Amino acid sequence: MTAAAPKVDELAGLVLDVAPLLMRSIRSEMRTHRDPELTVPQFRILNFIHRAAPASLSEVAEHMGLTLPSASKAVDSLVERELVTRTQDSVDRRRVEIVLTALGTSVWERSRALTRTWIAGRLSGLSQGDRAAIERGMIALRDAVSAGTDKAKPTGA
User: For residue 107, what are the contacts with CB-CB under 8 A and spacing of at least 6?
Assistant: First the structure.
């Protein structure tokens, strides 16, 4: 006998309950593995730029909840450390594009790899059936949430 599928609104409630817990855990773990010379806001900016590249200063400011001058100062510090570059958009000269450098990508990837290992450790105690169910559910959730978007903008972290 199989369990009845949850109602869509009940499933939505479960997603709303689990997603913040999951994101809080991931952010905490990624911050644990960040470069100690990076502030948490700087690391969050690197994470955002990795997901949204090329990102504009306005997008960074909006994501971080900063004013443009504050975001500019934070990005300037990352430019000075050679973690990101700023270049003028070839189409719209008013837009400045911010991307990770090879060093910035390396710093971000190291943190992500260590966090992925942490998550794998948390999942390792689950049965093979539970892991398969999570995989199916995560793929379905990703597809449902990203449907109709051409470039999904990141949230969190």
Answer: 34, 35, 38, 46, 83
